[in-house]
Design brief:
Blueprint lengths: L1 E5 L16 E5 L10 H8 L1 H8 L3 E7 L6 H5 L8 H15 L5 E12 L2 E4 L7 E2 L1 E3 L5 E3 L5 E2 L3 H13 L3 E2 L7 E2 L2 E13 L6 E12 L6 H4 L3 H25 L15 H5 L1 H5 L2 E7 L8 H15 L10
Parallel strand pairs: 3-13, 3-14
Antiparallel strand pairs: 1-2, 4-5, 4-9, 4-12, 5-6, 7-8, 10-11, 12-13
Helix pairs in contact: 2-4, 7-10
Length: about 325
C-alpha cells in the first residue's frame, strides 16, 4: 500500500541538504509493481464496483498519469491481455444474466473523446463536434451521441478496438503513440421490474464511466512544438480543472470548504456526477520508474493522494 519516491537529483554529500529527507512516502488503498497482471489490477480496483452498477449506483474508473506510463494498456489492453473495459463489461453481462428472469435489462454504451475541448463520437467520427447539454433534471447529456445497445461482450470489444483507432494519437518525444485526447466509455444499465404487491413498474438506472485520460504533459519532457504544444496546453488545462475540482471536493466539510467549479472544462462538466455525486469512484494513477520522470511521478502521486481524500455520500436505493 506504500509508494516510496526518492529524488535522484539530490546529492547525498550535499551538506546544505543533509538533514532533509530524500524520500517521500505516499499511502494508497493498493499499489502494484511492474509484475502485476491485468487480472490483478482489475480485481483489486474495479470488480467490486460492478455489483453496485447492477444495483443502480453509478461508478467511475479513471486512468491518470504522465504520457507513456500505460494508461491505455490498463483500460483497453490487448487481445491476449484485455484491460478494464472488457473485463468490467464481461462481469456486468454475467451479473445481468443471473437476474434476467426477474428483471428486464437494457445496456447502452457510448464512446467519445474530448480533444482540444471539443467532443467527438468515436463510434461515429463523421458526426463532427457534439454539444454538451443539461436537461431539466440537471443531468448532463451529449446531443447526437451514438448509443449502442447490446449484451454481447465480443461485439463491444470489436466496437472499442475500432473506436480506439479513431482516437487522436500523435508521436511525442516521450511516447511514440501518445493519446492526445481523453476517452470516455459510458455504459448505462436500465432495469425494469414490477412489484408483485402493487403491480407498478420499478425503474433503476446505473451508469458506469471508464475514463482513459490523456497523459499529463511537460513541454520540456515531450519536446512539443506548434500543434502538439497547443494540444498539450488543452490537455493540461482540462487536467488542471479536474485537479481543482478534486482539491475543492477533498476539502469539502473542512475548515476551508470551497466552491467546486465543474464548468471549467468539458471533462469536468461531463463527470460532474461521477466526482461529487451519486458515484463510487476509483483513480488508477500510473507512474514511470525512470529517474528522468521523477517530477511527473511526484506530481501524479500528489494528485492521486488528494483524490483519495474525497468523501461522497452515496444515497441508498429505495
Amino acid at each position: 500500500q506504500r509508494v516510496v519516491l526518492m529524488d535522484p537529483s539530490e546529492d547525498p554529500d550535499d551538506i546544505l541538504r543533509a538533514n532533509r529527507p530524500r524520500e517521500k512516502t505516499f499511502v494508497f488503498d493498493v499499489v502494484f509493481d511492474h509484475t502485476a497482471t491485468q487480472e490483478e489490477v482489475y480485481v483489486s480496483t474495479t470488480k467490486s464496483l460492478i455489483e453496485g452498477v447492477i444495483s443502480g449506483y453509478n461508478a467511475t474508473i479513471f486512468a491518470y498519469g504522465p504520457t507513456g506510463t500505460g494508461k491505455t494498456y490498463t483500460m483497453l489492453g490487448t487481445d491476449s491481455e484485455p484491460g478494464i473495459y472488457i473485463r468490467a463489461l464481461d462481469d456486468l453481462f454475467k451479473g445481468l444474466g443471473a437476474i434476467a428472469e426477474e428483471v428486464d435489462c437494457t445496456v447502452s454504451m457510448s464512446y467519445l473523446e474530448i480533444y482540444n475541448e471539443v467532443i467527438r463520437d468515436l463510434l461515429n467520427p463523421s458526426s463532427g463536434f457534439l454539444d454538451l447539454r443539461e436537461d431539466s433534471r440537471g443531468s448532463i447529456q451529449i446531443a447526437g451521441i451514438t448509443e449502442v445497445s447490446t449484451t454481447n461482450a465480443q461485439e463491444i470489444t470489436q466496437l472499442l478496438m475500432k473506436g480506439n483507432k479513431q482516437r487522436t494519437q500523435e508521436p511525442t518525444a516521450a511516447n511514440g503513440a501518445s493519446s492526445r485526447s481523453h476517452a470516455v466509455l459510458q455504459v448505462t444499465v436500465t432495469q425494469r421490474s414490477r412489484r408483485k404487491e402493487t403491480g407498478e413498474e420499478v425503474r433503476r438506472i446505473g451508469k458506469l464511466f471508464m475514463v482513459d485520460l490523456a497523459g499529463s504533459e511537460r513541454a520540456a519532457q515531450t519536446q512539443n512544438r506548434g500543434k502538439r504544444m497547443k494540444e498539450g496546453a488543452h490537455i493540461n488545462r482540462s487536467l488542471l480543472a479536474l485537479g481543482n475540482c478534486i482539491n475543492a471536493l477533498s476539502e469539502k466539510g473542512g475548515s476551508r470548504a470551497q466552491f467546486v467549479n465543474f464548468r471549467d472544462s468539458k471533462l469536468t462538466r461531463l463527470l460532474k456526477d461521477s466526482l461529487g455525486g451519486n458515484s463510487r469512484t476509483v483513480m488508477i494513477a500510473h507512474i514511470s520508474p525512470a529517474s528522468s520522470s521523477f517530477e511527473e511521478s511526484r506530481m501524479t502521486l500528489i494528485y492521486a493522494y488528494r483524490a483519495k481524500n474525497i468523501k461522497t455520500q452515496v444515497p441508498e436505493q429505495i
